[in-house]
Amino acid sequence: MNKFWNWVRNEDTGASELIFNGPISEDTWFGDEITPAMFRNELSKVSGDLTVWLNSPGGDVFAASQIYTMLRNHKGKVTVKIDGIAASAASVVAMAGDETLIAPTGMLMIHNPSTVAFGNKEAMQKAIELLDEVKESIINAYEEKSGLSRSKIARMMDEETWLNAKKAQSLGLVDGILFAGSAPQPKPEEEPDEDTPEEDEPKEDTLTAMSYSRAATMQSLMQKVSAEHKGTPVDQLMSRLNLLKY
Predict the structure, then answer these.
(1) Which 3 state secondary structure label does DSSP give 192?
(2) pTM of the predicted structure, to 2 decimals
(3) Considering 68, 108, 128, 162, which has the largest number of Cβ atoms within 10 A of its Cβ?
(4) Which residues are 211's β-sheet partners?
């Protein structure tokens, strides 16, 4: 069993629960990645309702697509509970829940895919075209879950949007907030464009391949906080934390 996930049985409901904690990758390099092959093997052992506790910085977009599809195809209700962070490719996995909930302290992040390419002008153009198509495929998952317009989702991805629990719920990217009561939440309507990030908001430029590392995720968040508190003790703290690599 992969040490970065663990199956448990809920004593109250009898449903299976999966602790999904780690980066997503097509292959494992450091022993902490969650791969589609490993996930499929584990998922095949479970029938009926399933709860996935999700805490992941993201990873390979195609591997995340496979996991998303497996969860959507699972026989039984799938509940995704974001207890930490669902960033980048992991946010796509979060969209697979028949019901997706987030902790009051949880975060969800969406951004544009990225890759590494080399070669001549034609090779660069093909890489751009691939990224455009990958972005459209990712938008499909967000659109189906939230009902937001594709243009609004695309703008949010362009700006690399970080969402706290309440904002994620208001946009329909999650269905509810954990511990907030059992009353059903109304389906949110399309919000006005001003709710998207401001044009002058700082953009992250440290993307990596078609994956997203824990270091890049936290680096982006710290830079965002630092920019909003320039010259304050918070800014000084962020500068020190930026020196840490993990």
Answers:
(1) coil
(2) 0.72
(3) 108
(4) 208
